Amino acid sequence: LFSLQTFTMVGSVDRFECEIENKWFSKNGAHQMDKLTIQIGAKDVSIDIPTDEAVEQPLKLSSIIIDMTGEQKGTVLVTGGAGYIGSHTVVSLLEAGYSVVALDNFTNSVNSAKNESVALKRVEEITGKKVHFYRCDLLDKDAVGRIFAAHRIDSVIHFAALKAVGESMSNPLLYYKNNMIGMINLLEVMDSHGIYRMVFSSSCTVYGEPERLPITEENPTGNVTNVYGRTKYFIEEMLKDAVRADPKWNIIALRYFNPVGAHKSGLIGEDPTKQFTNLMPYISQVAIGKKDVLTIFGNDYDTPDGTGVRDYVHVMDLASGHVAALNKLDKEHLGLKMYNLGTGKGISVLELIQTFERVNKVKIPYVIQARRAGDISSMFANATLAEQELGWKAVHSVEEMCEDFWRWQTMNPSGYKTEQANGHH
């Protein structure tokens, strides 16, 4: 009934392309069948045939992705899916064979005049796959409920949060309201729809000033130096209580270190028109001439060159970490488990600047100012637990982080801002 055109291994995923013969359709375009059943081993896999295809063309069901058990991967709701880490993770999810529904309120991302996510439109370009996108705020619980009612969601990856450390200190209630109540609403809607699998975007900020380096998951949490980090810590504690009270929950919290870099295509990256608190966008804004000089806060830390040391991790490595976590939840019931995602290597501010200059052949003028209140001298991860239990490891070098971010910056000097985008920047 069909010819198997390609068969390739993609990780643990089998990818099939099938072509359906014309004879399945009568001349007036009415279906003789609307389902295709493929037998894989002992399993029958049913695939819906879209009804609106032109009858002259053989219908291509390209890249139907079926995992080893012969089941198609599930549907994932990604909150904050239009944001920096969210959009890159959506690429990895689609490439791994998941269907994606995304929501975002555009606090940290850019919308087009049609209220679509510019980043996710580009994700569709990169992957050749559709993302179901909703403009929605997690504080609007009814709207969130409607999304769950409209799709058969299997699991949730929760990125949506306010994230600017400075703003969190000056407007703490906004941060508590958005991050904490947003999470509570999401958990309640999930519970009412019988969905208990979640990957939560936590942060290394939950560790505060670390007592020992590198930081393992056993390091104490809670001695947090800023409100943003406290919201992440409180949510982790809340999840512990929720899981204790209802063992149906199956949640992984990923504590990630400093995300940098961009997708290799240069089509998506961290938008410079939104508030960013990371060093890399500042460096590249100076390199491209949008800012005159880079400010380094503090060169008197107890580190090799006196500047702060961080564990920079490529955003595509973080993205693959979320897919690895989801695969783990699909297979196993963990209750609640925390994992660090980092490279395990600390890089100082000056080292990052020098690497960026060397790799991209640019100059970054900088000035030194006094250290900022609440800044931590040195942080880097021990990420061996994620490697042992999730099979995940950061594979991109700091050179690649610099190169990929610069490609994104030079291809998109004003970020996602396009003629079609509205004025809310």
UniProtKB/TrEMBL annotation:
The keyword Nucleotidyltransferase does not apply. Its EC number is 5.1.3.7. It is an enzyme of class 5 (isomerase). It catalyses: UDP-N-acetyl-alpha-D-glucosamine = UDP-N-acetyl-alpha-D-galactosamine. One of its GO terms (molecular function) is UDP-N-acetylglucosamine 4-epimerase activity. It holds the Pfam family GDP_Man_Dehyd. One of its GO terms (cellular component) is cytosol. Its cofactor is NAD(+). Keywords: Carbohydrate metabolism, Galactose metabolism, Isomerase, NAD. GO terms for biological process: galactose catabolic process via UDP-galactose, Leloir pathway. It comes from the Eukaryota. Residues 77-404 form the NAD(P)-binding domain. Catalyzes two distinct but analogous reactions: the reversible epimerization of UDP-glucose to UDP-galactose and the reversible epimerization of UDP-N-acetylglucosamine to UDP-N-acetylgalactosamine. The reaction with UDP-Gal plays a critical role in the Leloir pathway of galactose catabolism in which galactose is converted to the glycolytic intermediate glucose 6-phosphate. It contributes to the catabolism of dietary galactose and enables the endogenous biosynthesis of both UDP-Gal and UDP-GalNAc when exogenous sources are limited. PANTHER family: UDP-GLUCOSE 4-EPIMERASE. This is UDP-N-acetylglucosamine 4-epimerase.
